[in-house]
Specification:
about 180 residues, Jelly Rolls, mainly beta, 2 domains, elongated
């Protein structure tokens, strides 16, 4: 028993015939009918490297979208933000490429709503080498919560990110399911 009134077999069959690829079937918010749902997901990147001053939290701006289902990202306003369009658990991931002229410790974080770090990784860079870093986590977000990929280092002079069109300065976020 699914707990939905009416002829569930008839409703499900009708719904199945109207599905599009990659949709999930769920009960609507009112709990009265089945509906198709496309989970929000995006992958974005910055085509221009970012200057990261020493000892300064710097949110990475993303000016291009590889895809954006559900309007998670804007290329016009608050371009560093990935915003949850609906509540749920999201997988968030970010990566950067950074070159250091001297050995430095670099922190790569996922920051929630501009203040709270929800994931972080640290890396000791090698002098003169392009260093790639990745950070990721699953986190329950409320509708309109946003996350940013943030870089901080202690080299003593500015560092730059970017430099590779296929993987540098990228972020992704996808809804994985309800939070409760």
């Amino acid at each position: 028993m699914l707990g939905v009134s009416g002829n569930i077999a008839e409703t499900a069959a009708a719904k199945v015939s109207t599905a599009t690829p990659l949709q999930l079937l769920r009960v609507n918010a009112a709990g009265t009918a089945l509906e198709w749902f496309t989970p929000p997901a995006c992958r974005v990147y910055g085509s221009i490297g970012v200057t990261v001053p020493t000892a300064t939290d710097t949110a990475i701006a993303f000016n291009t979208e590889r895809y954006d289902v559900g309007s998670i990202h804007s290329t016009v306003t608050n371009t560093s933000r990935l915003t949850a369009p609906i509540a749920g658990v999201y997988h968030v991931e970010g990566n950067i490429r950074i070159t250091s002229a001297a050995a430095a410790t670099v922190l790569l974080s996922i920051r929630l709503n501009g203040t709270t770090v929800i994931a972080q990784t640290a890396w000791k860079t090698a002098t003169g080498i392009d260093n790639g870093m990745i950070v990721s986590c699953d986190y329950a977000l409320a509708a309109s919560d946003y996350v940013e990929i943030v870089v901080r280092h202690n080299e003593g002079s500015d560092l730059s990110t970017g430099g590779n069109a296929n993987w540098a300065d990228e972020a992704s976020m996808r809804w994985t399911g309800p939070s409760t």
